[in-house]
Amino acid sequence: MKALLIGESRDGSFLEYGYELVGFAERIGAETAMVMVGQEKSLPGYGGKLYLADAATYGEYNPDLHKKLILAAVEREKPDLVVFSHSSYGWDLAPRVAAGLKAAQLSEVIGTTGDGYELPSCSQKMRRSVKPATPVVVLTLQLGAFPAVTGGGTPQVERVETEGSGKVIFVRYEAAEAKGIDLAKAEVIVSAGRGIGKADNVPVIAALAKALGGQLGASRPVVDSGWVEHSHQVGTTGQTVSPKLYVACGISGAIQHLAGMKKSGFIVAINKDKDAPIGEVADVLVVADVMQFVPALTAKLAK
Ligand SMILES: Cc1cc2nc3c(=O)[nH]c(=O)nc-3n(C[C@H](O)[C@H](O)[C@H](O)COP(=O)(O)OP(=O)(O)OC[C@H]3O[C@@H](n4cnc5c(N)ncnc54)[C@H](O)[C@@H]3O)c2cc1C
Questions:
Q1: Is pLDDT at 115 greater than 80 in this prediction?
Q2: Fewer CB atoms near the end CB (10 Å): N or C, the chain?
Q3: What integer pLDDT is reported at residue 69 of this predicted model?
Q4: Site residues for ligand 1, CB cut-off 6 Å
Q5: Looking at per-residue confidence, does 176 or 276 come out higher?
Q6: Domain containing 89 — which CATH number?
């Protein structure tokens, strides 16, 4: 089994989630090569063959040209799998590459089965196992679903080139306007999940955050319900955090939430369900009703 991994570069730097592609390949025991439109001065710590196209020539993004560059690398490597991150780059490019190869394309892979892949379904409440039937398969991997494997040495660079200009002109990436709080700097975060029940209970969680000298975080449903402002959201569509202490209150541990906080130093989860998936990453799982446990803990800390 051979996998062609699609690395990404932004502002001249390799994007670290690309190392999760290496972790995925290791898990399935695949041989790898990588392709990236980037710069020679910022190569990934990856010891395999790297097909490098110059971002100065082909742009940081250009769907038509990047597709052609990847297909050129596919032609040379003849992989069984072409593997993207489930990033905006991967969302846009993977289907184009799959169409070019007449290959099955699976988005948001979160796991592997013996001969197939696991994808989320029913708003992440269930998983479905899918076994693609084409000889070549194009995948996007959900961020955080596979371990990042770094430090694999220096790649053997081979240049890849193409011609033309492409029908879509990429203008630029624009950073989202910074507003609200920057959770990335917090040493302690106490996050509220749907399990807190209602907006009126948010101050109870915020009080524990304050007692611990930390910030309030939240899962996406809490933000979507309007209980907490979006700048507090942790996860793939919120902030990525790595505080010394992360306390998850009534949070189940969906992959999109874990991707944003699983690098925290010490994780405490409070959940009434002893089998909640958050237990897999938590250092301590307190099985309790969050609205009983949290006020009692805050009161103890105040003494
Ligand atoms: C493209 C995409 C992007 C996403 N991005 C994000 C993201 O950035 N961040 C994010 O968080 N989610 C994100 N999600 C949503 C994610 O899939 C989950 O739906 C979400 O994380 C679940 O939030 P939750 O754990 O608060 O709620 P639930 O999954 O409903 O879990 C609630 C938990 O609370 C527990 N509970 C209930 N009552 C109590 C009680 N009284 N005491 C103690 N425990 C209790 C339950 O046992 C359960 O484990 C995204 C989804 C998609 C499709």
A1: yes
A2: C
A3: 98
A4: 124, 193-195, 219-221, 233-238, 250-252, 254, 256-257, 260, 270-273, 276, 289-291
A5: 276
A6: 3.40.50.620
